[in-house]
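Supplementary Note 3. Input sequence used for the single-chain structure prediction.
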Amino acid sequence: STPLIAVILCSTMLLPFIILAVMKANRDKPRETDPWACGFKYSPRMQMTGGPFTGDLRKIMDWLFRGHKRRIEQNGYFGPIEYHNHPQDIWWTMIYQPVIDWSKKIADKIGIIQSGYANLYTLYILIYLCAILGVGYFLI
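The predicted structure, written as discrete structure tokens, is reproduced below.
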């Protein structure tokens, strides 16, 4: 219908101005404050990781990642504590690692025919083209 097309055309003409207004509204300078260190004093040994943000999700999904956790207490009660968490992705061992191992075996088998001689590579290509030509001739 003509009125609907007119409304759509007018709204698409206004769209760049709406986008510009939204972009200009977001030009405020970001607030800068000291980062929160969970009540600890900052030291160069601290690492910034995504652990605090994903902690609850990792606790819920712990059965999936099967992490190896290790906590080492040193120098008595008030000494520094080391904590290591190394989650393992089960998809890596179930899917990716077998594919990688299979690809390595195939690459080792193919590596036997790679001798480095250009004449031999040309012979391989010629044999391949003849085989494809034969398959195409006899199957079609």
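The longest helix spans residues 2-25. The radius of gyration is 31 Å.
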